[in-house]
Amino acid sequence: MITILIQRLPHGDGLPMPAPQTLGAAGADIAAAEDGELAPGERRLFPTGFAVAIPEGFEIQIRPRSGLAIKHGITLPNTPATIDSDYRGELKVGLVNLSRETFQVTRGMRIAQLVVARVETVQFQPVEALPATSRGIGGFGSTGT
User: Fold this and answer.
1) CB under 8 Å to 5, separation ≥6 — which residues?
2) Going by DSSP bridges, is the β-strand pair 103-105/36-38 parallel, antiparallel, or unpaired?
3) What is the Cα–Cα distance from 17 to 51, expressed in whole angstroms?
4) Do 17 and 48 touch, CB atoms closer than 8 A?
5) Element holding 90 (H helix, E strand)
6) With helix as H, strand as E and coil as C, how does 111-143 read?
């Protein structure tokens, strides 16, 4: 089990802490800390009222809630959004309204979910040529019909 330190900010008082909704849930739901309106096609950041200290070697991924996406066309413009382990500011959720109707976000509404994921340290090594594979440089539909 990984421990994430969480700091409730003053405007987040009374809001639920991020929490999985079922025993088998991979993500923890995040609530909005303020009311707001999203017009069709509009993008906006919504504060959550908390900040976290993510252990080194991990990230938090912010993902859409499937119900909001399917029922209302509300998703994230950059999904999954990555929160790095060295960030200590308030978590904010970028939402976009892909529907044709204005959407009301209310304080306390579950607007996204967070998933904690391990991050591997990488090093990029320049080379003159890459090793060959059977696929080669084929992409964008080259393996299917």
Assistant:
1) 52, 53
2) antiparallel
3) 11
4) no
5) strand 90-97
6) EEEEEEEECCCCCCCCCCCCCCCCCCCCCCCCC
Tokens coding 32: 């909005």
**Quick one: which H or E segment has residue 17?**
none
Instruction: State the residue for tokens 């025993």.
Output: 23
> Residue 144 has what DSSP assignment?
-
Q: How far is 55 from 28, CA to CA, in rounded Å?
A: 17
Q: What is the pTM of this model?
A: 0.86
> Is the confidence at residue 144, as pLDDT, over 80?
no
pLDDT in tens, 1-31: 899 999 999 999 999 999 999 999 999 999 9
67 token code pair: 């119900």
Instruction: Report the C-alpha gap between 54 and 82 in whole angstroms.
Output: 12
Q: How many residues does the chain have?
A: 145
Check residue 13 and give its pLDDT. 96
Bridge partners (DSSP) of residue 82 are: 61
CATH number of 5-118: 2.70.40.10
